[in-house]
Structure formats: structure tokens, C-alpha cells
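Sequence only, no structure available. Ideas?
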Amino acid sequence: MSKRAFWLCTCVGCQQAADTVMTKQSDPMLTDTHTALRQRIEALAAQPAEALDERAAREAFEALLEGLNQGTIRAATPTEEGQWITHAWVKQGILLGFRIGRLVDYSTEQFSFFDKDTYPLKPLTLADRVRLVPGGSSIRTGAYLAPGVVCMPPMYVNVGAYVDEGTMIDSHALVGSCAQIGKRVHLSAAAQIGGVLEPVGARPVIIEDDVFVGGGCGIYEGCLVRKGAVLAPGVILTGSTKLYDLVHERVLTPAPGQPLEVPPYAVVVPGARAVQSLFGKVHGLSLYTPVIVKYRDTRTNAATALEESLR
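Reply:
I predicted one. C-alpha cells follow.
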């Protein structure tokens, strides 16, 4: 594997998730080093452009970038109780990197591209044990990919993302900025995991362990997909989506200030809901809606198991 990963500048993953607001909680990353870095970044981010100490900002940003690349710093982390806490200071630091960066030429003979000098290629080596198949994939520095991750071309992982062990990112899939992807997740072809940098307190999209995301799915605006869930091809989830549970005969909607949450082991398929207005009835109109049709069992596991031979 080449030390230089294929990279192409894009801001597709830097989508806003302004509709989701994270309740302020204590930060579990409480090492002395992280606490000091957090204080530095928060102070620097608050400084106006004309007063910003660029040298100090670059030093703090580089320390943050090292932690993001190693996976020791994350934009969101789980608690022992299964809740997720968003770390606004991490996103403040990422935005600080854009603020202080200078546009530079990263062009090669094959590709022409230009981006901030604070966001070059992610430094991957063979020791990282990430399988990066050639063909135009892009991984931005500041993203963490754990050992055993498989990247099928072309795919893109944006800054601040965390992708855990054994996950497969299939062709044309996007892992947006600060998205959190668990272990043994399968992101099928053309799956879109939305990103979030602003507002800094907003929760990123979170996909827990052993989730299967079908082809062409879109998960946006801080949605939380719990462990073992299966999303059939074409499922779209946003912060305002209603999720209909046929098994328990209930409608799942996000609580105020919280994201839409897909229950553990739920099997979600694209569905339709009839428009009840007179005009809608006359024209036979219906609206898209995701529907839980069952909860995952042994048969479903077999149907969604990843081919180990491909790993």
C-alpha cells in the first residue's frame, strides 16, 4: 500500500445539522492533555481574526489532528450507559484548521486539486492495516480508520470521521465529517452518511456496531442507528423523519433536542404513507416513509453477513 492515499478535495461531507441539538453533558475525554488542548482550542476559536495568534493556533490544531488521526480524540464518544456525547471543542478545532489554512496546490500529473495546507493527505502506511483498494478513493487527514477497515473505490471519508474495526466502505459511499461508524458495519454502494461541523454542538451521525446499511441509503442530521440494525436499500433518515414500527405498532419520532433513533436490530425498509388531503386522495398520492417490518433474527443475520473471503 502506498504511503500516499488517493485524495480528492471535496466539501460534500461538511453538511450542517442545525436541526439537532445535543444536551450539554460532561466530557469523558478528561486526560490532562486533552483538557489542556480543549482549553487552548476554545480560547483560540473565540479570538477575532485580527487578534488570532496563528502560530499558537497551528500548534493546537496539529495536536488535535494527531489525536484525530490516531483515534484518541473523537467528535463524539459513547458512555457506559450507551448514550453518546458530542464534543463541541473538537469541531471548533477542525473549523480552526480551515480558518488558518492557506490554499495550496496538491496537483499531480494525473489529478489537479487545491485545498487548505492544514488538510493534506491522511498519512496511511501498511502498519495501519487498512485495506485501501486502488481506484480513486479519498481519505482526508483528521479521519480515523481502524485496522481491518476495507475501502472499495471510489469512496470518501471526511475529516473528523471515526471508522471502527472490520467495517467495509463500499464504492461511491460517503462518510461525512465527524460521523461515527462502529465495528463490522457494512456501508453498501452509494450509501451517504452525512457530516456535521456547524453548529459545533450538533450531534454527528452515529452508526453503532454490526449495522448493515443498504445501497443508496442516506442517513443525515445526527441520526443514531443502534447496534445490529439493518437498513434496506433506499432508506432515507433525517432529523425530522418519522419511523413507523409495524412490529410494536408505534411511531418513533425524535424527542425535542434529540436525534431520530433506530432501535437495536430493527429491520427498516422504504415505505409509503397515503396523503390524507382531498387533493391527495383524488390523485392517489403518497409520501415516502421508513418502516420497521421486523427485528433482526438468525435468518436475517445470514442474509446480511459479509463475505469473509472478500476481506
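The longest strand covers residues 286-295.
Hope that gets you unstuck.
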